[in-house]
Design a protein that fits this description.
By secondary structure, the protein is α/β, with parallel strands linked by helices. The chain binds 2-deoxy-2-amino glucitol-6-phosphate. The site of 2-deoxy-2-amino glucitol-6-phosphate (AGP) has 15 residues, from α10.
């Protein structure tokens, strides 16, 4: 997800901002920018400009001084053309304009790695000022580009803002502001916040921010500069992390501890829905009613590496814990008043109703999402779903019905086999929908429609939060298809969307039980073979549980459709072998229990994973892990969590490098 850094103090801000953003690179990003308050005449070399410089940007970078803007000045961050007159650096060019006598804000933005920004600003030295904010962007709304990168700003009231999170109702706000005469230059949700602040700011920053908080829905951590208040940084958060740090050199805001650990360990994790005002010597906290409140600071004793993982031992565990937020961020913006909104697919209700068959294609864990989708979509929307490994689909010269919708699922959006399968389907004339986590990735760009999962960047090779958001995307699609086909009515849709919105808290409840799972995992860290069995969509979950275990613990594992065991594999069951039985589907529960009896009678040690209430599982299983009840069609989102934790703790028990397992890459961009 995005990274935010801010500093106001008695040193030049830009170098500190760049250093802090570098410490947040692990969060993944595709562009970056800084904004530095200029408290008076800020004269830079370079092409003359009357206050606001025309924004020239080369391939990757642009620089602009806003704040002394003539209201009619039309600034834009043109991509791709650069002003030859300015000194150009390797990956970008920089334009500076003559400063103005009034306080202003200098903004420098660049697509790509931070080094572009460093080169454009001579490592920050050429952007003077002791108060600024910086941002690394992980694209959610709007392609990775200079114009979409942060900081965003509103030209009239001279406000600059950086944002981490998702403004769910940004489109309605944007439409309203456009009608009021505001003009937008980016495709981001964040720019709406800049214009709202501009609209509400009449000299009192706390009041303006408070009013914005009442208007926007979603998650946000904001760093804000008001040009007429040089030296002051404002910040506010709701659901996205943001901290404040203080030191004798000045005060900081940051998305995460690593960004400021070099300067201070004296931090305060800003409470939700609180506003913060920082000057170089003071920090004040306010609630949403603009009343000042006291907050306490604490000493962070993490080392830098631990800090990058937010205090977690591995990115995988951190990402397992990010699943509630990732699912919430993916689901909430697509549900309004109980209805699923699939407009972003660019498919009308008629288009959706016309879909006669679905062909799903993916690799690895994404393929297991497709397997789950087969059961879930067929149950919910009564559309036949075929599932294929991308590496098979691309070579089998598939025969598909005319109105087949091909869905390619991919976290990275760059998996070679999945991309090739997409191209094969398009070559055959089929419509392709991509379910993708990386904005602007190849699969996202080449699909006819894209449904983005908003899991944020996933660092660990073993996917967890992206997997969970892909499941959520499938559920939304199934409900949308079911409604368009008249298979589910309004009442059913309301019931399903209500339950979908409850999944994050149910995942949180499972995570609270991690010690039980860790204790169990430690008993089996030295297994030679571990089997997973399930029926229906529990079989798909078993496939994912088995892959998770294999890829990070290197223990041989197989997942089987439980009814299939007796056709051969049961011969492998010996004394003490762990068999994990996943059972959440009522109609198949007793059958799965029988299969667990079969393997137990042959010496297996049986772990049951089931929903609360199915206590008869304990009559058979040696150990049982319960997950909260949910609609059966959503059960995979809950059972996968203990299976992820089981794999994680087994691998940990073996002392393996959980985040970087041998022989594997995060994105398999070759055949
Ligand atoms: C999952 O834990 C694995 N890392 C791997 O199977 C992965 O799911 C597969 O390579 C597909 O990647 P994609 O989702 O980026 O296309």
């Amino acid at each position: 997800m995005c990274g935010i850094v801010g500093f106001t103090g008695r040193q030049q801000a830009a170098p500190i901002l760049l250093d802090g953003l570098e410490k947040l690179e692990y969060r993944g990003y595709d562009s970056a920018g800084i904004a530095v308050a200029q408290s008076g005449v800020a004269v830079h070399g370079g092409v003359e400009g009357a206050g606001l410089t025309k924004a020239y940007s080369a391939q990757s970078g642009s620089r602009q001084t806003v704040g002394a803007a003539r209201p009619d000045a039309q600034e834009d961050w043109q991509e791709g053309t650069g002003a030859a007159s300015a000194r150009s650096v390797q990956d970008g060019s920089r334009m500076t304009g003559a400063g103005s006598a009034e306080p202003s804000i200098e903004i420098v933005k660049a697509k790509g790695r931070l080094k572009v920004l460093r080169e454009m600003t001579d490592d920050g030295r050429s952007v003077p000022g002791t108060c600024g904010i910086g941002h690394t962007r992980w694209a959610t709304h709007g392609e990775p580009s200079v114009v979409n990168s942060h900081p965003h700003y509103a030209k009239n009231k001279r406000v600059a803002v950086v944002h981490n999170g998702i403004i769910e109702n940004y489109q309605e706000i944007r439409d309203r502001l456009t009608k009021e005469g505001f003009s937008f230059i980016s495709a981001t949700d964040t720019e709406t916040v800049a214009h709202l602040l501009d609209k509400y700011y009449a000299g009192n920053p706390i009041e303006a921010i408070s009013r914005v908080m009442f208007r926007v829905r979603g998650s946000y951590a904001l760093g804000i500069l008001f040009a007429d208040r040089p030296g002051e940084i404002y910040a506010v958060r709701k659901d996205s992390p943001l901290i404040v740090g203080r030191s004798d050199q000045g005060n900081f805001i940051a998305s995460d501890v690593p960004a400021i650990l070099r300067y201070t360990r004296d931090v305060c994790f800003i409470p939700n829905l609180e506003i913060v005002k920082l000057t170089d010597r003071e920090i004040h906290f306010y609630n949403v009613d603009q009343e000042e409140v006291e907050e306490t600071f604490s000493q962070v004793n993490w080392d830098t590496e631990a800090a990058e993982k937010g205090g977690f031992a591995h990115f995988m565990l951190k990402e397992i814990y990010e699943q509630p937020k990732a699912v919430r961020d993916t689901v909430s913006p697509r549900i309004s008043e109980g209805h699923v909104n699939l407009e972003e697919l660019g498919m009308s209700q008629e288009d959706l109703a016309k879909v006669s068959r679905i062909q799903m294609v993916a690799c690895g864990s994404a393929y297991h999402v497709c397997m789950t989708a087969k059961y879930m979509v067929e149950q919910t929307a009564r559309v036949p779903v075929d599932v294929d490994l991308a590496s098979e689909f691309r070579y089998r010269n598939p025969v598909m019905e005319k109105d087949t919708l091909v869905i390619v699922v991919s976290q990275s959006g760059e998996t070679a086999d999945s991309l090739a399968a997409l191209r094969e389907a398009k070559k055959l004339g089929y419509r392709v929908l991509g379910i993708v986590n990386v904005v602007g990735s190849s699969i996202a760009r080449e699909a006819d429609s894209v449904f983005y999962t908003w899991a944020g960047p996933e660092i660990s090779v073993a996917t967890t939060k992206a997997y969970s958001t892909q499941l959520a995307a499938v559920y939304l699609l199934a409900i949308g298809l079911g409604r368009a086909r008249g298979v589910i009515d309004e009442t059913a849709e309301q019931e399903m969307t209500r339950e979908l919105l409850r999944l994050p808290e149910k995942i949180e409840r499972i995570l609270e039980e991690k010690e039980r799972i860790q204790w169990f995992a430690n008993k089996f860290s030295h297994s030679k073979d571990i089997f997973f069995i399930g029926r229906g969509l529990d079989y798909a979950s078993s496939l994912e549980g088995s892959l998770k275990l294999k890829e990070i613990s290197y223990i041989h594992s197989e997942a089987y459709a439980a009814g299939e065991l007796k056709h051969g594999t049961i011969s492998l069951i010996e004394d003490g072998i762990l068999v994990v039985g996943v059972a959440t589907q009522k109609s198949l529960f007793e059958k799965l229990i029988s299969n667990m009896v079969e393997v137990k009678s042959r010496g297996a040690y049986v772990l049951g994973v089931t929903s609360y209430g199915n206590y008869s599982m304990e009559d058979v299983a040696n150990y049982t892990i319960y997950v909260p009840k949910t609609m059966e069609c959503f059960a995979a989102s809950l059972t996968v969590v203990p299976l992820q934790l089981l794999a994680y703790y087994v691998a940990l028990g073996k002392g393996l490098d959980v985040d970087k397992p041998r022989n594997l890459a995060k994105s398999v961009t070759v055949e």
